[in-house]
TrEMBL record:
Domain XdhC- CoxI: 15-86
Name of this protein: XdhC family protein
PANTHER family named among the record's database cross-references: ALDEHYDE OXIDOREDUCTASE MOLYBDENUM COFACTOR ASSEMBLY PROTEIN, MOLYBDENUM COFACTOR INSERTION CHAPERONE PAOD
Residues in XdhC Rossmann domain copies: 169-311
Length: 338
């Protein structure tokens, strides 16, 4: 499954190429509670079809009515970008289904240039991170490749949105847990790859839509073009496979690196990496293990839920409290029973 940003941009590009008219809406600013974060996008076609979202649904309905049916079905209006705001009053917040106190500001682009969207998607599909800048007064869009993600910004005159290739998950080990984790990652918009040099494991892989890579995991990590939107999870339970892959991952820019294992096995892994491979406590700070958040999970499916939750927290820049850390939670529970 493609990331929602890429799906919105691709739909808008394809509709425009087919001769349709398109409205591209972006969440520019929010105050109080908001259903969708800044930078969220939605494409609206002149017949009312929508891809993406900017709210829980009511604002989308209003945009459809205002910019399609209000024109008698003849299509979307032309003109420079507009800024619209929803939820200023309590009545509006209630009408549009916004949380109490929520206010949402949108930038509306009418029939954005097909050529610019096509160029943007070409860069994103090639793995580039792209800074898209829109100047509202001129309706001018510029695209600039960048190496550093930049926070979405809107100062009332120009919008800057850093867009990147879809998030990727590379799993080491093709077992049952990997299949559940792959399924969850796919419906969260990740491109998923699995690596396992053991034929007996790869031959039983059953999740479609996942790239299967045969090779030694450390070589695969080295050749994977790891970037800031990549996460790497070692799930093989075999130190010969997991440890070398983790060593490669730890010296790259992946936003999340983790390995399956009990508290004891995780500690032994850290000791091995320090003693035999020259790592330090500081260099292992980025290594998650035991992976996941503590929810008392026992089955592969439950463990996958906890791991995916931790990955999404890291992706979204959310620091998790110590009580959710598996090692800390289990240590506290053990202390209570002693």
């Amino acid at each position: 499954m493609e990331s929602i940003d890429l799906l919105v941009l691709r739909s808008a590009r394809d509709w425009l190429a087919a001769g349709d008219r398109v409205l591209l809406a972006t969440v520019a600013r929010t105050w109080g509670s908001s259903p969708r974060p800044v930078g969220s996008m939605m494409a609206l076609r002149n017949d009312g079809r929508v891809v993406g979202s900017v709210s829980g649904g009511c604002i989308e309905d209003d945009l459809i009515h205002r910019y399609t049916t209000a024109y008698g079905g003849d299509g979307l209006a032309d003109g420079p970008p507009e800024v619209v705001r929803y939820g200023v009053s309590a009545d509006e917040a209630h009408r549009f289904g916004l949380p109490c106190g929520g206010t949402l500001e949108l930038i509306l682009e009418f029939s954005p240039a097909w050529q610019v969207l096509d160029a943007l998607l070409s860069q994103l599909d090639s793995g580039q991170l792209v800074r898209r800048q829109l100047v509202l007064t001129t309706d001018k869009v510029t695209l600039q490749p960048t190496a550093t993600p930049e926070q979405f910004s809107f100062d009332g005159e120009q919008m800057v949105n850093t867009l990147g290739p879809g998030y990727r998950l590379l799993m080491i080990g093709a077992g049952a847990l990997a299949e559940y984790l792959a399924t969850m990652a796919l419906f969260n918009g990740f491109k998923v790859s699995v690596c396992d040099p053991r034929p007996e494991h790869m031959q039983t892989w059953a999740v479609s839509g996942v790239e299967r890579i045969v090779g030694m995991p450390d070589d695969v990590v080295r050749d994977f073009a790891v970037d800031l939107r990549t996460c790497i999870v070692a799930l093989s339970h075999d130190p010969k496979l997991d440890d070398l892959a983790l060593l490669e991952a730890l010296h790259g820019p992946a936003f999340y690196i983790g390995a399956i294992g009990s508290r004891r096995n995780s500690q032994l892994r850290r000791e091995r990496l320090i003693e035999h491979f020259g790592e330090t406590q500081d260099s292992l700070e980025r290594l998650h293990g035991p992976i996941g958040i503590y929810i008392g999970s026992k089955t592969p499916a439950e463990i996958a839920v906890s791991v995916m939750a931790e990955i999404l927290a890291a992706k979204n820049g959310v620091g998790l409290p110590g009580a959710l850390n598996v090692a800390s939670a289990k240590a506290s529970l053990a202390a209570l029973h002693n």
